[in-house]
Amino acid sequence: MNKIEAKNRHISIGGLAAGSGVPVETIRNWELRYGFPEPLRLDSGHRRYHMNLISRLRKIKSLVDAGYKPSFAVNLDEQEIDQLLLSASAEGHINEIENEDSLTAVRRWMMLAQAMNVVELNRILARDWNRVGARRFIFELALPFLREIGNRWETGGFSVAHEHFASEVLQTFFASRWRPLISSHHHRKLVLANQEGDLHSLGLQMAAVLSALHNVEPLFLGPNTPLQDIIIAAKEQKASAVVIGLSSVSDPEKSAHFLETLQQRLLGVRLAFGGNDKLPTMSNVEYIASLEDFDAWCRNI
Questions:
Q1: Between the CA of residue 87 and those of 68, 278, 291, what are the distances in Å?
Q2: pLDDT at residue number 184
Q3: Is the pLDDT of residue 285 over 70?
Q4: By the 8 A CB rule, do 13 and 26 touch?
Q5: Considering the entire predicted model, what is its pTM?
Q6: For residues 291 and 203, what is the distance between their CA atoms, to the nearest angstrom?
Q7: Rounded distance, CA 106 to CA 155, Å?
């Protein structure tokens, strides 16, 4: 390609602004802050920009209009930009995709978690809940999403802040979803609680959804629940069962003592736990290895 052909493929900053809809001042600001768009310097010292930047800038503008930070949007590759634009139009509205596959949906959640875009992520969660239903939402979307969050954290792709953000958004979302599922048809009751000192209750929130789907009313006590409070709730509400959520790093000896004491105080009430597979086998205390197992376990409460 000769110099004349190369020159013809480049435009001024004014032309780039007119073609992309991004103001000249914004283009200059992004170039200074983020190194994008990168201009070609002519011998005269003037800046020129390649024509293909028009399309990319239009897409980035659409993401910014939808609520994404410019510092996030300008660093995405073309595939990531196109994935996000499946869910956000130039006005920032959700583009409903009824037949979206689970892998694409989880990727969308990941990008929104990366951007810490709570408004858009909550909107997408609600859309996917209505689109696939509660059970598929948990097993096909939420659990793969949480596994990917863990993988990204281990490899340095996500910070602790990103992990906390994603977990908190999901936990709040599930808390708002299982309560409307309870009705007068729920005749059996299940106490769900974390051991005292344990603050990780996302798994219990998903368990509450599944139990409600099985017509078992969840009595959700949540994180850091004293043993005596669990006993009182189970007895007063005549609960059919109690499930205790344990952190994977909880002390096995202390947790086993906690569960054995509960079992002795709640004779006749079914008792189970999940979240830590390092506890010793205990008489009349069941271990539930996964949410899939919990889903099956609920059928026999």
A1: 12, 42, 29
A2: 67
A3: yes
A4: no
A5: 0.68
A6: 8
A7: 18
Across the range 220-227, mean pLDDT stands at 95
Residue 101 CA to residue 105 CA, distance in Å, equals 6
Task: Give the strands of the sheet with 188-195, arranged side by side.
Answer: 216-225, 188-195, 241-245, 270-274, 286-287
Judged by DSSP in three states, 127 sits in: helix
Give burial (CB, 10 Å; 0-12/13-18/19+) of 74.
buried
pLDDT of amino acid 80: 81
Whether the CB-CB separation of 272 and 300 falls below 8 Å is answered with no
Per-residue model confidence (pLDDT) at position 224: 94
Handedness of CA 273, 277, 280, 286 (dihedral sign): positive
Cα atoms in the 13 Å half-sphere on the side-chain side of 108? 27
* Span 25-43, pLDDT tens digits: 889 889 888 889 988 887 7
Query: What is the tens place of the pLDDT at every residue in 50-97?
Result: 988 998 998 888 888 776 778 888 888 888 887 777 765 433 444 444
Q: Would you give the distance in Å from CA 15 to the centre of its chain?
A: 40
Please work out, in degrees rounded to the nearest 5, the angle formed at the alpha carbon of residue 218 by the alpha carbons of 295 and 113: 70
Beta bridge partners of 222: 193
Helix, strand, or coil (residue 222): strand
Residue 274, helix vs strand vs coil: strand
- The neighbouring-strand residues paired with 41 are 47
Q: Which domains does the chain have, with CATH numbers?
A: 96-180 (1.10.1240.10), 182-298 (3.40.50.280)
Q: For the residues of 228-260, what is the DSSP string, one character each? A: HHHHHHHHHTT-SEEEEE--TTS-HHHHHHHHH
CA distance 92 to 69: 13
Distance of CA 270 to the CA centre of its chain: 32
